[in-house]
Amino acid sequence: MLTIYQRTLGVEDRKTLVCEYLLIRALAAQSKNAEVEELCRSLLPLQIKVLGAEGKQTLYCQTTLIGALSAQNKHAEVEELCHSVLPLQIKMLGAESKDTMFCQDLLFKALLAQNKNAEVEEQCRSLLPLQIKVFGAESKEALYWQLHLLQALDAQHKNAEAVELCRSLLPLQNTLIQSLSAQSKHAEVEALCRRLIPLQKKLLGAENKDTLHSQLQLVQALYPRKNAEVEELCRSLIPLQIKVLGAESEETLAGHLHLLAALIAQDKEAEVEAQCRIMIPLQIKVSGAESKDALNLQSLLLRALEAQDKDAEVVELGRSLLPLQEKVRGAENKDTLETRSRLAHALSEQEKWAEAEAEYRSLLPLQIKALGAENKRVLDTRRHLARSLSKQKKWAEAEAEYRQVLQLCERVLKPEDSRMFSLYGLDEFIRVLSKNDKLELAEELCRRVTAFYSKLLGPENETTLGQRGALADILSDAKKFTEAEAEYRELLPLFDKVCGAESPRTMSQRWSLTHMLL
């Protein structure tokens, strides 16, 4: 569009100038500051010629140029340009114009960067009432200008004035941060805290309560965007909080919670465990063993222990946590169900099959009531229950449960469910049946599973072929050699096609056929 305007209307036409300025604004919004600077420098002489040095669009373009220079830390150029532009802005736009105020703010930043602190102090003191009038006493703009003044006072070693100003800003800081946080403007809160905290540490002290509060506000702004930094900040902050505020203070506990959340987000399970073990006694002391926070922390500890395969500890904690959760939250609460499930799984991992069976039997009706009979968590529990029965050689009960699993799988599972039956244990059960001379039942279930795989995944899917191979093995073990041979011979070209002639699965089928025919 700009090229067309330049060619047809000319570079000095007003429409061309407007189009070029709109391009500059679009680039500025993308923080392409070097391009903005280059275009502004070429556009401004034309604007001055056509629109005049005092034209509003000329002034707007100069403000945009100043912003681009500031973003590139070209502080001397910002200062020089601001000194020439500000009088024109005041004349044409007014001293209370937001563009004028924005330009003045950039001038302050440039002066501070060049250690021209006396100028910043003088101008801030004279212009701050106007800033408050335009934006309001509790605005972020007013706070930032006072931070300019605070930084200038500190740089000039005017400590008494700096400390007094620093203390007076705290209510405004808290109000503004609450407002920004409510609007999810976490990056702005982060920027504000990063500017405040070094000044507070220097003027008020690293162990000052307000300094500590600002650091907690920074942590809250960073989570969950920057978890590694949250962890680092919390590890340095919490010891100071304990020393100054006490181990059981609300802000100290908040610091612990943010550290825990950051560790969870980074999958640092061993450190999550350690942090939970620190926090649980504190939380119980502060709010009681049956409090929501104490129960939540124990649930997180249980999760961390499970992730580290610490099954004995999962069992111990699960047995003590369950009665509390049932009392406070109810037996059908999702957290209570999750604890019972973790306990049952840990017992399975320890091969305590009878105890695992008892837990799964307790869990199953509660899950069905809370989640529905076809929920995948229910399916998982049935699979585990069936496995625990199978391990105890309770064949009839295991068979009944696995039939329930199979029926659920047929209704619930879809092609995109990647792990399919290998997840739910039917293959294992069929192999166990075969090894225990229950070949008729193994064959029946295997045919049903094979048919389901074929329908769901396709007859030439590798998983389907694997199940057909298992069926051929069962037929061979049952001395149904004619059927087994037919199955092997039908499978071999399919395995060649799908897996490759020299793949381990194809070679295994050839060996099985050869071995049977010997």
Class of secondary structure makeup: mainly alpha
Average pLDDT: 91
Ranges with pLDDT <50 over ≥5 residues?
none
Total helical segments: 26
Topology pattern, helix = H, strand = E? HHHHHHHHHHHHHHHHHHHHHHHHHH
Shape: elongated
Whole-angstrom Rg: 36 Å
Strand element count: 0
Can you describe this structure in just a few lines?
By secondary structure, the protein is mainly alpha-helical. It has 26 helices and no strands. The longest helix is centred in the N-terminal third of the chain and has 24 residues.
Any overview of this molecule?
This protein is mainly alpha-helical. The chain has a domain at 452-517. 81% of the residues lie in helices and 0% in strands. It has 26 helices and no strands. The N and C termini lie far apart (82 Å). The relative contact order is 0.03.
Give the topology:
Elements: H1 2-8, H2 14-29, H3 33-50, H4 56-71, H5 75-92, H6 98-113, H7 117-135, H8 140-155, H9 159-182, H10 186-203, H11 209-222, H12 227-245, H13 250-265, H14 269-287, H15 292-307, H16 311-328, H17 334-349, H18 353-371, H19 376-391, H20 395-412, H21 420-424, H22 426-435, H23 439-457, H24 462-477, H25 481-499, H26 504-517
Keywords:
518 residues; 26 helices; mainly alpha
